[in-house]
Amino acid sequence: MGLTKREEFTKAQNELALITKALGHPARIAILQFLIKSKSCYCGDIVDELPLSQSTVSQHLLELKKAGLVKGDIDGPSVCYCIDEKAWNKSLGLIQGLFGSLKGPTCS
Amino acid sequence: MGLTKREEFTKAQNELALITKALGHPARIAILQFLIKSKSCYCGDIVDELPLSQSTVSQHLLELKKAGLVKGDIDGPSVCYCIDEKAWNKSLGLIQGLFGSLKGPTCS
DNA sequence: AACATTAATCGTAATCTTACGATTAATGTC
DNA sequence: GACATTAATCGTAAGATTACGATTAATGTT
């Protein structure tokens, strides 16, 4: 065992889980907050800000990229990481869809 | 290595990550959706609905409980699992706080 | 061309997660 | 009290995640 039964769940469930999973680490929250507050950013700037090594930050950025939250534009020898605004808004929509589907108490 | 450096991040970052991490598995999304759509629910009902064993569902429910999204009220030999509405709304607020902090493009 | 800078990737180790079956604990029913 | 039902917990196996240092690849600078 030890492997998630993704194929047993719906595409929508997997999609939402992929996004929230990417958000499920404090370092990745910190990276996103940094990208938002300091505008356009290089991996090196994030490494300077966070208590993690360059390779670890690079790995977290890859997670965020796989979830679609972030995109990286090559800029010379650097890569400029930015929030993918379209995906960002869509992701919030998916999350709000889940939270908003609760209308009243689920039990009394 | 192999262990998240939680203490290096803020309490708020860890709190948000705990919630999103709990949401980061399709089975747990499915469980929450089931609790919402079918109102008050027992673990056994969830087991019948999902392609997972009783012990695995129990484990996922524990994850959701640790994140505070769900609470379990003992009802005879059963446990009635419900969305913790207060925590639910607070969680959405935290997530919206992150998403809403993006005002414009992070890079051009 | 030689060198510096930047970030991805590789290799590795520790730990966590996911999943299951089996067992146990708690409650209710006969 | 014996038995059934419900769900937690235990034990275990496979695999994923987190983290690091070292290396590599790509680009820019001298």
Structure characterization notes:
The structure is a homodimer of 108-residue chains. With 108 residues, chain A is an alpha+beta fold. Chain A has helices at 11-23, 26-37, 43-49, 54-66, 85-100, and strands at residues 41-42, 70-75, 78-83. The first copy, chain A, has a 3-stranded antiparallel β-sheet. In chain A, a hairpin with a 2-residue loop joins strand 2 (70-75) and strand 3. In chain A, helix 3 packs across helix 4. The radius of gyration of chain A is 16 Å and the shape is globular. The interface between A and B is large, with 53 and 53 residues. The structure holds a DNA duplex (30 and 30 nucleotides).
What distinguishing features does this structure have?
homodimer; alpha+beta; three-stranded antiparallel β-sheet; DNA-binding
Question: What's the SSE blueprint?
Answer:
The structure is a homodimer of 108-residue chains.
Chain A lengths: L10 H13 L2 H12 L3 E2 H7 L4 H13 L3 E6 L2 E6 L1 H16 L8
Antiparallel strand pairs in A: 1-3, 2-3
Chain A binds a DNA duplex (30 and 30 nucleotides) through helix 3 and helix 4.
